[in-house]
Amino acid sequence: MKKILTGVKPTGDQMHLGNLLGAVLPFKKLAEKNDSAIFIADLHALTSVKSAEDLKRNTHEMALTYFSIFGIDTPVHIFRQSDIPLIPKLNWILNNVTPYSLMLRAHSFKDSLFNDALQKQKEWERNAGKETANEFNKKYKNHPFNDDNEISSQVDSIYAEQFKKVPILNMGVFNYPILMAADILAYDTDIVPVGQDQKQHLEMTRDIAKAFNKTYKTDIFKLPTEYIEKDVATLPGIDGRKMSKSYGNFIGLFDDDKTLKKKVMSIVTDSKGVDDIKNPDECNVFALIRTFATPVRVESIRAKYLAPGYGYGHAKLELLEILTEYLKPYHDARAMLEKNPELIEAKLQEGARIMNARIEAKMQKVKEVVGL
Ligand code: TRP
């Protein structure tokens, strides 16, 4: 049995069917066969969520979502990152073996840096017209991202001023990978299921673990491996492109009946009429039917595409029925949990108790090693 851990940031995004099939259900399958935990990374969310109300709502929403999918009695420990007080402590200890230059290479940080510069540029363009914008371009646009020495002084000069305004690029963003390393290393995690975008953070986690082990001539931290789900069938969204939150073309796991119907009826198709023969394998509606219907039903609908008298409207209504049925257990579970917020809280606490016990044992050893 492997120790498996992953975290999700409560940023307020709704879960959609693409996330469910591409990431969450594969994780669930793997998790249930191992010693697994999933946590709500509310400390990480602080880098971008700046309202207590939002953070609480997002965190609760995420707990509701995961317990609805995993079941309230899941063997997978579900917990809140901020309920583990030793994580920030381990974070601090790890800060002191982490090279500054390693953090400068983080994509997450460089993206924020770039977005910040871009935002600043737009602001200047708006306020001061093109001339100032050109000035800005000359000065800042060509960040020597690849030059670690130069970047630090640039960061200071560009952002000293901006910090007074919108601190998107805050120290939390910079330290993000070290906090993540603490999350992972605290529990002797073997495998970390993540999306492709987190691969670099796992590499950094291993670098940080190695740096600690080397500094203190120990092997106390285990080197974790990322697990990135490959060959995930991409689900089309209602506009036919890959279903994604950024395209806004998704079907939400918890969309209500009305929203679901509206979305299904607006799935893009070609303009063939009711009596035209249609190619199911080129149809977005059928792609979803194929994913969610039973094989028998898929075959029967395929036959209807290949015969006259069956229009896309008919197919959409069948898809609506199929999805409604597919989603029902999730919706029922959620409705039950919504009525019992104290049950969710109790479960989160139970998860935290188990994980706290693990990290306490680990931190005893870490403290000895570093002399605290
Ligand atoms: N950084 C991850 C994300 O944005 C969330 C996360 C935080 C995480 N700590 C983690 C994932 C530890 C895996 C393990 O998706």
Descriptive notes:
The structure is a single chain. By secondary structure, this protein is mostly helical. It folds into 3 domains: about 5-100 and about 175-235 and about 340-370, HUPs (Rossmann fold); about 110-170, no CATH class; about 255-340, Orthogonal Bundle (Tyrosyl-Transfer RNA Synthetase). It is about 60% helix and about 5% strand. It contains 14 helices and 5 strands. The chain has helices at about 15-30, 40-45, 50-70, 85-95, 100-105, 105-140, 150-160, 170-185, 200-215, 255-265, 285-290, 295-305, 310-340, 340-370; strands spanning about 5-10, 35-40, 75-80, 190-195, 225. Strands 1-2-3 form a 3-stranded parallel sheet. Strands 4-5 form a two-stranded parallel ribbon. Helix 3 (about 50-70) crosses helix 13, helix 8 (about 170-185) packs across helix 9 (about 200-215) and helix 11 (about 285-290) crosses helix 13. It starts with a strand and ends with a helix. The structure holds tryptophan. Tryptophan binds near residues 5, 8, 183 and 194.
CATH topology of the largest domain: Rossmann fold
| Radius of gyration, CA atoms, in whole angstroms | 24 Å
Quickly name the level 1 CATH class of the largest domain: Alpha Beta
Identify the overall geometry.
Answer: globular
The biggest sheet, with number of strands, parallel, antiparallel or mixed sense and barrel status, is: 3 strands, parallel
Overall mean pLDDT stands at 89
